[in-house]
Design brief:
The complex is a heterodimer. Chain A is of the alpha+beta class. Chain A has 5 helices and 14 strands. Chain A has one domain: Ribosomal Protein S5, domain 2 (2-Layer Sandwich). Chain B has a domain of 56 residues: Beta Barrel (OB fold (Dihydrolipoamide Acetyltransferase, E2P)). In chain B, strand 4 and strand 5 form a beta hairpin. The chains are: A alpha+beta, B alpha+beta.
Chain lengths: 341, 286
């Protein structure tokens, strides 16, 4: 995606190195090795879920590597009169910092953003992945989940990084608990002594219901309230379903993973594969995209998809364990630390 | 840290933090990297203090390359313009390489023709890497480069590594050959070219200037051992750059020997523990 300038000699050096036996990459990695991936969740306090991800950060240095920040924000939408959909909806957006692509003009940068947004949005907001707990009141109110991703730096393999960060942010997302409420007009004759004042009349004998009684969660509920403002809520449903993306960089004889920017520029064909691994179900291929001027035969594509599934599974497992670690770090360990003070 | 004349006389290097008062503005003048506030000269960048008579300046540690005439630089062509190339050399402005300051095929003394202007892309095109020397400066501070030596010109058979420019010291020679069959060109702008070793006679060709070879875009055949050595040297340079160790030829040689002694693979060097061990081992040797 990023078109760095690369001389013909460099390009051919990279290509022949990759096709040598054994294949050799500029930094000595094997073909299927990823660079170090750093992940931290809960980085944005105002967001419902957030994650910061870096692929290939240079040790001891502030910079280097592909850096991506993802955050989710929930917003209430009106289904009847607004844009809302019954059961909630998800909108994804990718923004690229101009410093990530200093050589691109602002128009070209917009195109890159649009392209990345489309891939992410179409994959994440697909109905097969839709979480169940984004509805608030049937046919009245629902949550709109905004997933925003910012690319701070691109050192290659930006799409894998975006999907990993998006998955981590969605995994981290908490949906506030809501309770439906309904207002009922006071029955005539009750509370006559209080005039126009609205007093709590729940204890009065003979008076049935409080105006804010929610025990009988009627289908006619008009509005909702947050039972506990300070509670973060329950986790977003479908944690295990969010997809991971692997990019296979395809050379005539073989393929490799996690390309750096110069490698990307000298590879003719890229295959993006997004897989979802729901528990107790076979995996789903959620998105597939083939980019570049190179050629591919159909049987080759099949083996590539099969290989991609294997790599995606490994990536998924690694990411899952890291996310659980992060959860532990932020909740259990933080609590223990607080208690021991 | 408020300094007076005696502190400067010792010749010791002092580091500053941004906002740190250096000395009184009555006794000294402010130079680059400083400002005056409350009658004090204050550093505006992190770096080393330099003094010329009464002029105090701070040379920043992390900065773009500031060129000087005679420096050897490695650069990348960004633009082809009438009778000149624009070259990215990690400086504040792109450098300029004039058509009149390159060697053209058909003899060093040949006159430049109009036909040369029309086929400038056959010599250098966008993205090409070259090694050159800083020749002069234009009025606006843009450096002008030249490649009028057989050692300068287009780069092939290797890969580029970037380190902070402050790490490249001025050496007797910036063309280094390591015994593992790897050539290094340490550009003072922080760009380092790591390539396959070329024998002296191959490099200079015969008496006639071999245009085919000099402006070629094709790599020679490089065997796998050399490729592995190039990757290993590149990783060593990356590690040393990350640890902010100034690079010299002996240091690189020591580091390479250490890395070979460890008998690890090339990618083991990416491991931060091994990187730390490498830096401490090299520091102990020198």
């Amino acid at each position: 995606m990023a078109s760095v300038s690369l001389s013909k000699a460099e390009k051919s050096f990279i290509q022949t190195s990759l096709q040598a036996t054994p294949p050799l990459r500029a930094d000595g990695r094997a073909l299927l090795d990823y660079r170090t991936v750093l992940l931290e969740t809960g980085v944005a306090s105002q967001a419902n879920g957030s994650a910061k991800l870096n692929v290939g950060k240079a040790p001891l240095e502030g910079g280097g590597g592909t850096e991506v920040l993802a955050a989710t924000k929930l917003e209430v939408e009106d289904v009847e009169n607004g844009d809302g959909l019954d059961g909630g909806r998800i909108v994804c957006a990718v923004t690229c910092s101009p410093s990530a692509y200093p050589h691109l003009s602002s128009n070209a940068l917009d195109e890159v953003q649009y392209d990345l947004t489309m891939i992410l949005h179409q994959t994440i907001s697909h109905q097969t992945l839709h979480p169940k707990n984004l509805g608030i009141l049937p046919k009245k109110k629902s949550w709109l989940l905004n997933l925003d991703v910012v690319v701070f730096a691109d050192a290659g393999n930006v799409l894998d990084a975006i999907f990993m960060a998006a998955r981590a942010a969605l995994w981290d997302t908490k949906v506030p608990r809501t309770r439906a409420i309904q207002y009922q007009a006071k029955k005539a004759g009750s509370g006559t002594g209080s005039g126009d004042m609205d007093v709590d009349s729940g204890n009065e004998p003979g008076h049935g219901l409080s105006g804010f009684d929610t025990r009988d969660m009627a289908r006619t509920a008009a509005d909702f309230e947050l039972p506990d403002y300070w509670d973060e809520g329950e986790v977003l449903d479908g944690r295990d379903r969010w997809p991971v993306c692997v990019t296979l960089n395809v050379l005539p004889s073989h393929h490799y993973l996690d390309a750096t920017t110069p490698e990307e520029a000298s590879t003719p064909l890229k295959l993006h594969l997004a897989f979802s691994f729901p528990t107790d179900q076979p995996c789903h291929l959620q998105a597939l995209r083939l980019l570049g001027p190179g050629e591919l035969q159909l049987p080759q594509l099949k083996t590539l998809i099969a290989d991609g599934e294997k790599y995606a599974k490994e990536l998924f497992t690694a990411l899952e364990s890291k996310l659980r670690d992060e959860d532990l770090r932020r909740n259990v360990k933080a609590r223990d630390k607080f208690a021991s003070r | 840290m408020v300094l007076d004349d005696e502190d400067f006389a010792e010749g010791t290097q002092k580091l500053t933090c941004p906002g740190e008062p250096i000395t009184s503005s009555h006794a000294f003048m402010r130079g680059h990297g400083t400002y005056v506030d409350n009658e004090e000269v204050i550093a505006s960048v992190a770096g080393t203090i330099e003094r010329v008579n009464k002029l105090i300046s701070v040379r920043a540690i992390r900065a773009r390359y500031s060129p000087e005439v005679g420096d050897l630089v490695v650069g990348r062509i960004t633009e082809v313009q009438p009778r000149r190339w624009k070259v990215d050399a990690n400086s504040r402005q792109d450098a300029v390489l004039m058509l009149s300051s390159v060697n053209l095929p058909g003899g060093v003394q040949r006159r430049k023709l109009e036909s040369d202007e029309l086929q400038m892309r056959t010599f250098f095109e966008e993205g090409d890497l070259l090694v050159a020397e800083v020749q002069a400066f234009f009025a606006d501070g843009v450096m002008s480069l030249h490649t009028r030596s057989l050692r300068y010109g287009k780069l092939r058979n290797g890969q580029l590594i970037t380190v902070p420019p402050a790490l490249i010291r001025r050496l007797k020679s910036h063309f280094i050959t390591l015994p593992c069959g790897v050539d290094l060109i340490l550009g003072l702008n922080g760009y380092i070219w790591v390539s396959k070793h070329l024998k002296q006679n191959e490099q200079e060709g015969e008496d006639a200037f071999d245009a085919e070879a000099v402006y070629s875009n094709r790599n020679d055949d490089i065997d796998d051992a050399t490729r592995a050595a190039i990757s290993r040297v590149s990783n060593i340079i990356r590690i040393l750059g990350a640890h902010f160790v100034p690079l010299t030829d002996t240091l690189l040689l020591d580091a390479y020997e250490w890395a070979v002694e460890q008998e690890g693979g090339v990618k083991d060097l990416l491991n931060s523990d091994i990187g730390d061990a490498l830096v401490s081992a090299v520091a102990a040797r020198s």
